[in-house]
Amino acid sequence: MFDVLLCIHDQHDEWLVLLAALICVISTMSSVQLLRHARYLAGYAAARWICGAGVAIGFGIWATHFVAMLGYDPGVIAGFQIPATIISLMTAIAMTTMSFSTALAKPDRKGLALASVLGGGGIVAMHYIGMSALEIPADIHWNQGYVTLSLLFAVLPTGPALALAVRGRSVRSGVAAGLLMTLSIVLLHFTAMTAVRLVPAPLDLRTGILMSPGSMAAAIAAGALGLLAICIAVLAMARKARLVLHATERDMTILVKGITDCAIYMLDRDGNVANWNAGAERLKGYTATEAIGLPLAGFYTSHDRTEGLPERALALAAQTGKFSGEGFRVRRDGSRFWAHVSIEKIADENGDHIGFAKITRDMSRFKEDEDRLKAMAGHLDAALGNMHQGLCLFGPDERLLVVNGRFKEIWGLDREASLIDMTLEDVARLVLETRAHAQVSQARIDELHLLLAKPPADPTSSPVVLDLGDDLVVSMTGRAMADGGWVTTFEDITERRRSDARIAHMAMHDALTGLPNRSSFAHWIDAELEQARHFGHQLAAVMIDLDRFKEINDTRGHGAGDAALQHLSKRLLDVMAEGEVVARLGGDEFAAAKRFKDKAELANFLDRLDACFARPFGPEDNCFLLDASIGLAVFPNDAQQREQLLNNADLAMYRAKANVGERIAYYEPEMDETARARRQLSNDLRQAIDRNELTVLYQPQHGLATGELNGYEALLRWQHPTRGPVAPDEFIPIAEETGEIFRIGEWVLREACKEARTWPDGLKVAVNLSAIQLGQTEIVEIVRGILVETGLSPMRLELEITETAIIGDKLRALHLLRQIKSLGVSIAIDDFGTGYSSLDTLHSFPFDKIKIDKSFLLRSQSSAQARAIIKAVLALGQSLNVPVLAEGVETVDQLDLLKEQGCDEAQGYYFGRPGLSPSLAAAEAVRQIA
């Protein structure tokens, strides 16, 4: 050993020796880190990390040797042979890689011994091959004793180093493994260098290309840099792996502690509780403080403790690694629960037994279900006999094992017939021949055999439906069993199929007439349009609306109306031909369609439809005619899409309905323009109030006896931003159709009441109330609210209604009018003498005023009949003691006629045109004077 130290001191540069040792330490530590990471992997991933470890230590051994050789001073060194130098590096990498692979694959004693021989042999081979690359002017003689010692120094420390590297878990064991490998390399090098004895001899440089010491230094530097890069990568990967491992362990700890549906805790080697999770606390009732230190036997029943079950469970887990079992366990409060228990042996990184991991699950409900199933086993036959479904249980050999009575009932078999042990094919033949009352073909039997055969394992597969006609439709569902057999259930769904068919028919047909409904008609039109586009023919859509059908229901009853619709539907169906359809869209609205190529076909179709209305309906002693308005639109001339085609036919139908004597109307583009303009006007009307386009004008009303002003009638006007003034008889019907009349009517009433509040107390304001408003349930509350809001006395408000606003639902309308009148508001009947006028209306309600329509006064000079009507209404008002107001007074002659006949009040251009509110007019006059 003194010779080794003398060699280091006298023949080596101490600084280069220290550098070589540093390189050696870095390489061995890196290889240990890589090797430890590889033990958690498998396959190709593990091989990569093992190769990385081999490269790291191989470079380290090689660099250690040649750095030390650069510091070796035998006198003179000529250079290094390149082939031997490279072979020495490859040998070190290859043999250490094989050593690491062997140590990981077989970490037992024999495996580690073989790995240490491979690793130590690699170090030795690298050194002596590297020495052979040395070119100096001398011959090298070896001291065999030191050579043998160098071999032992290389192999012996390698075994413990590999054991610590692959078995250890701690940082300390990793450092120890690296230092032992470093010691092996350093001892080998310097012992082998001590064995060298140089004998001077001439240098022969013709043996090949030599690498100078400077070049060798550069190569070693490159290797050292590569090694440094590997080390840095190793440290980064090791750090990342540690972070991941720590995160995993942390997550696992949180997971285990947070689990509440089962008890998870540790036991020490003696079976005492070492830790306790939330699930254990919930399940067993002990807090962690109370549970830690308790023996496992404390959770068993007294009987189990007497039998020694806790000790046997721990012994079996320690011996085999795991114990699983079920049984009753005891909670802190003494209650019992049925538990499934797992106990697993836990060892440390060295394989030493340190305790047990225990998992306990509460299986009480499962146990109860299991006991219940066992109790029900005795009643299985009774249950099968009362099942709604038929059931067959087939064994793996396709023989029938169990069958219930419902199965025989479904297929019409004798309930006493024995089917047990019949083959699947025999069952199929029996049921088919029983249903058919005759012999059945083999093909039919094979078909049913295939349907009844073992079902797929997927329990969500759809049932198989066997349709045997109207007599029987069976739904079959199979479920595979673990032993290779299967269960098939049979359900008779014949009635369900019939019900489904009826429901499907009802969904697409009208309940009263049996004709296709709107949805079915739309589907037919869509399909025909596709055909028409493909083949180039035309399609006519016809809309049919019955005229005055409501009168039939009102006068003859709904039963007669329904019978007429059914009779009409039968007539329409009877005249339909191929490529034609008729449908009821709802109420008194029908539709028809026809595919055609020339106008003659279309004309014939319309004639057949029209003829359906030519004959009367009902019994001979009480028959009646049904009239209809028919509109027609044709694809592709009038529309391209179904919605537009039907809409255009609808427009044509309304044209026919509006024109007296025109039963059938064809669509014309002008109809669409009119409808579009009406829709635009409707849209503009919705914004008229917000845009301040509506104005209330006031026309004075005078008493004829005194000539004094009695009040004003509020008249609504609309100044359209682009069309200018729009007449009330044009936009009021639109407002009533769209429901906008409610908002507009309320606005007019509020504006009129606010204005009248500024007038002298003797003046009243009259506001028109439309029929739609009178149908509004909240009209009484609206009137009351506006009077309260504006502060106008109810005695100064007069609401004008037409008799047509009452006749729709007379009882309801009169009830609402009485409620309004009870507020103190006056009610006047407007336009009396026109339209539907009835003395019964005057008798049914105490109106406060009767207004004569201006049309009579305008014709009074030229029509004796008009004058007679005026005199009659005035006489009626006097006899009923109801004041009468005449509208439209324009001349003195008209005024004299009214005075002569005793008319109470009048309004018209003679007294003043409708104008701004009196308050605004007065303010304007003052402004002009000023």
Explain this structure.
The radius of gyration is 55 Å and the shape is elongated. The strands form six sheets. It has an eight-stranded mixed barrel. A five-stranded antiparallel sheet has the order 11-10-14-13-12. A hairpin with a 5-residue loop joins strand 13 (473-480) and strand 14 (486-492). Helices cover 54% and strands 18% of the residues. Mean pLDDT is 79; it is low at 245-249. It folds into five domains: 2-238, no CATH class; 259-370, PAS domain (Beta-Lactamase, 2-Layer Sandwich), CATH 3.30.450.20; 387-498, Beta-Lactamase, CATH 3.30.450; 509-667, Alpha-Beta Plaits (2-Layer Sandwich), CATH 3.30.70; 681-924, EAL domain (TIM Barrel, Alpha-Beta Barrel). By secondary structure, it is an alpha+beta fold. Helix 5 (109-132) packs across helix 8. The chain has 36 helices and 28 strands. The termini are far apart.
Highlighted features:
930 residues; alpha+beta; Beta-Lactamase; eight-stranded mixed β-barrel; five-stranded antiparallel sheet; 54% helix
Show the helix and strand layout:
Blueprint lengths: L1 H10 L2 H25 L4 H28 L8 E3 H24 L3 H24 L1 E2 L2 E5 L1 H12 L2 H10 L3 H24 L1 E5 L9 E2 L1 H46 L3 E7 L9 H7 L3 H4 L10 H6 L1 H12 L1 E9 L5 E12 L5 E10 L1 H13 L3 H6 L4 E5 L5 E4 L1 H7 L12 H13 L5 H11 L11 E4 L5 E8 L5 E7 L1 H15 L9 H18 L2 E10 L1 H8 L1 H17 L5 E7 L2 E8 L2 H13 L15 E9 L6 H17 L5 E3 L2 H18 L7 E10 L5 E12 L3 E3 L1 H11 L1 H17 L7 E5 L2 H4 L4 H12 L6 E6 L1 H4 L2 H13 L3 E7 L6 H6 L4 E4 L1 H5 L5 H17 L3 E3 L5 H9 L4 E2 L11 H12 L1
Parallel strand pairs: 18-19, 21-23, 23-24, 24-25, 25-26, 26-27, 27-28
Antiparallel strand pairs: 1-2, 1-5, 3-4, 6-9, 7-8, 8-9, 10-11, 10-14, 12-13, 13-14, 15-17, 15-18, 16-17, 20-21, 20-28, 21-22
Helix pairs in contact: 1-8, 2-3, 2-8, 2-9, 3-4, 3-5, 3-9, 4-5, 5-6, 5-7, 5-8, 6-8, 7-8, 17-18, 21-22, 25-26, 26-27, 27-29, 29-31
